[in-house]
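Posting for a labmate who doesn't have an account.
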Amino acid sequence: MDIFSSYNLIIIASLIVIVSFLFNGVAKRTNIPSVLLLIILGVILQFALGYFTTEKPDFFGALEVLGIIGLIMIVLEAALELELKREKLVPILKSMGIALVGLIASAWVAALILKQFIPEMSMLSAWLYATPLSILSSAIIIPSVSGLEVHKKEFHIYESTFSDIMGIMMFYFLAGQINPAEDAGAGGFAINIILTIVISIIASYAIILVFQRIKSQAKLFLLIAVLLLLYALGKQLHLSSLLIILIFGLVIANMKLFFGGKLAKYLDKEKAHQIYHELHIVTLETAFVVRTFFFVIFGLTIAIASLWSASVALISILIILSIYAIRFCVLRIFIGSDIIPQLFIAPRGLITILLFYAIPAEAQVASFEPGILLFVIIGTSLIMTWAMIKDKRKTATYLDKIDEEIEEKEAHEALMEENSFEAVDEELSETMDLEVPDSDNDVSKPDDSELDISEEDII
């Protein structure tokens, strides 16, 4: 039987999407990240594939394309949910600061660990390998934090999105150091970011103004195609392409802010809002499908045997410990004491995988075990799962306590009300039991002498 026939692939793909949908339900009930379940599903399929056939297809091309599209959809999905308000300026800047400090500090310590255990690795190569391991995974975080308090949920969305963007920029900045002819230096890097922001804002205004005039109903995937084109062209021009996606999402989600004053007359609010809502749905659905296949295919490609290596385990555990030690210090400085469960929500995922495969050939080290990558991804995901489940139980206990207090209060009020009715009944009974005068005996009758009125009195 040809396991890779067209109909078999359709059946397998359909079943994967259905199972992924069920995983989302499990994730909401248990706080186990659906991404972790998808990786496990991929590993199971890897063993199943080995049982039915000896043919090993090359999934790398599909993995790379799915990862790029998934990253774009996830960042766009996050940007569409972010409101830019004056009162949110401080949380946004704080999240950006935490993401930046955490990224640089984690990469630095991870690079030192890698350099220590892999001597043939240069410091620049160590930084290139360490950077993907230091980037938060918005692909895992954003779907997982929906049950948290609003301010904590927004913090994680901001932080993970900024971590993705800044991590990618940092990685390609370091990659540019390998080839001095292509390295523009810090000044060129700053100009690159400014140019990207300017192009992003101009493109965002142009897209909204043009698409609100398109009367065809089938225009949302045209819009997504335009965004993918801008991202790919930006990459070819060595721009920070993910900023284009983020800024477009922020502009369309905050049209009142960006189309204020004289610009308001150019905006058809009804059509623009319709585009926003439809884009939100399409982005959400597309991100779900792409994320599903990316992590399943990743599970199909990973080498499970590398997890049992003592050196892999030691290096990975040291990197994981450094991640949470640095995160603890950064959160305590920026946020204070209320850092649970934020401290443990620091998984690695899609970006980590994508950038690992993008390490230039000149910087690659043959003795580096890819199992470190998998170990860190699974380890940080499991720690996040534990923290989310514990937080959910704590929240449930707190809510139960509130419910008990409300029930006690209601019971007390009902008892007081019942006592009050009994008191009224007693008063009424006492009133009814008062001695009523007898009409025959007690009421005094006038004497005949009193009724004897003379004519003179009448006159």
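Reply:
Got it, the structure tokens are right above this. The chain is about 75% helix and 0% strand.
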